[in-house]
Each structure stands twice: as structure tokens, then as C-alpha cells.
């Protein structure tokens, strides 16, 4: 069994054994280390993108809540504005009626006095 030939591996240069350390193996090891580093960086990036997607989903939910709150605030503000307008109109009408009554109280006795003379 010891003289059995090793199976063909395209990543091992021909004529060298899998355990032999040569200049080609050092280059291959360096390239493999770079590939492993790149794979690690890509995995981190994928995890960050997934986290960012979760944050974007949460932000979308918050934006929907903000839109809903804005609509409720606008309705409330319009109701308050209309109520205040009616209150202002009632006050103006009361003032106008009060002034008319005051003028009638002042003018009618003067008119009766003028006719009496």
C-alpha cells in the first residue's frame, strides 16, 4: 500500500508530493490565506447587510407610525382651529349685540327727550 500512487489533485504541481514544501506550495498557501481573508470579509459584509436590512425594516415601521401620527395631529389641529374660530365668532357677535343694546339704551332716551322739548 505504501507504493500506491496518490490520486490526481490539480492544485498540487506534478512531480511533488502533497506534503512536500516547495516554492509553489508557499505561493498556494499565501493565495489560500488571501482567499480565506476575502471570504471572511465577505461574510462580515453579508452579516452587515442583513443587519442593515433589519434596521431598514424597523425604520419603515417607525415611518408608518409617524405618518399615522401626523394625520391624527392634522385632524386634531383642524378641529381645534374650527372650534376657536366659532368661539371667536361668538365673542364678536356678543360684542356687536352688546354695542347695539348700549346704543339703543343711550339713543332712545335722548330721542324721547328731544321730542319732549
From TrEMBL:
Where does the sequence pass through the membrane? 94-115
Q: Name one GO cellular component term.
A: membrane
V-SNARE coiled-coil homology domain segment(s):
27-87
GO biological process assignments: vesicle-mediated transport
Q: Which UniProt keywords apply?
A: Coiled coil, Membrane, Receptor, Transmembrane, Transmembrane helix
Residue ranges, annotated region (Disordered): 1-25
Alphabetized PROSITE patterns for the sequence: SYNAPTOBREVIN, V_SNARE
Biased segments, Low complexity type = 13-24
Protein's name in the database? SNAP receptor, synaptobrevin
Native organism is Glutinoglossum americanum
